[in-house]
Write a structure and sequence with these properties.
By secondary structure, this protein is an alpha/beta fold. It has 10 helices and 5 strands, in the order H-H-E-H-E-H-H-H-E-H-E-H-H-E-H.
């Protein structure tokens, strides 16, 4: 935002000798409006990692400490899936059971609708974007409407994640994909589709990594706090 405002001031200085005073005032008003509109955009942090890495747990900690609103792409899809009469319910159910990714048009629509319900400016979006189609859809539909601050990447070994998910299923998570068959497909999807997205953002310097394999979630959160304190 500071860079944008500095650019605006610099442009105004260079235009003073090219335009009349009336034209210059008009240009300044237009650019000031653009800056003002940009300042009102919500700030977004993507939270990515393998299934069972602790994304949901850490998002709760971030919400409590830093005042973000947590939007889980998976929760939004499951809520829509269980909504009686939903036009997307059967489509979502099929993708969940097969460990594949729901079409981006559906996911982006649910995320945008959820953001509009909250009168806040800071969002954690958990479990999205998960593949190139998600990324392309987000860039086309949402990227101009928000500021992406960074991507929080919670790394975790597959064997640890599988154990966590299976234990979660045994405790009655209510999730149809907390079973070994679905988990195998989900990890294959994560490796083939989601890791390239994380690498894409990493090349832009936007990825902040933490070790989610630590047994104590409090220790994981201690590593996370520094990223949000500097936003």
């Amino acid at each position: 935002m500071l860079d944008l405002f500095a650019g605006y001031l610099n442009l105004c200085r260079h235009l003073t000798w090219l335009t009349s005073r009336r034209d210059l005032l008009h240009i300044r008003r237009v650019l000031a409006t653009v800056v003002s509109m940009s300042a009102t955009k919500p700030h977004v942090v993507f939270v990515l990692g393998p299934p069972g890495s602790g994304k949901g747990t850490q998002c709760k900690n971030i919400v409590q400490t830093f005042g973000y609103t947590h939007l889980s792409a998976g929760d939004l899809l499951r809520e829509e899936q269980n909504t009686p009469g939903s036009q997307y319910g059967d489509i979502i159910e099929g993708h969940v059971r097969n460990g594949t990714i729901v079409p981006v048009e559906i996911t982006c629509s649910l995320i945008e609708k959820a953001m509009e319900k909250h009168n806040v400016k800071k969002f954690l979006i958990d479990g999205f974007p998960r593949n190139q189609n998600n990324l392309d859809g987000w860039n086309a539909q949402m990227s101009s409407k928000v500021h992406l601050d960074f991507v929080l990447f919670i790394e975790c070994p597959e064997e640890v994640c599988v154990e966590r998910c299976l234990n979660r299923g045994k405790k009655g998570s209510g999730r149809s994909d907390d079973n070994i068959e679905s988990l195998k497909k989900r990890f294959q999807t994560y490796t083939n589709d989601t890791m390239p997205i994380i690498n894409y953002y990493d090349k832009q310097g936007l990825v902040k990594k933490v070790d989610g394999g630590i047994c104590n979630p409090k220790k994981v959160f201690e590593s996370i706090t520094v990223f949000f304190e500097n936003v």
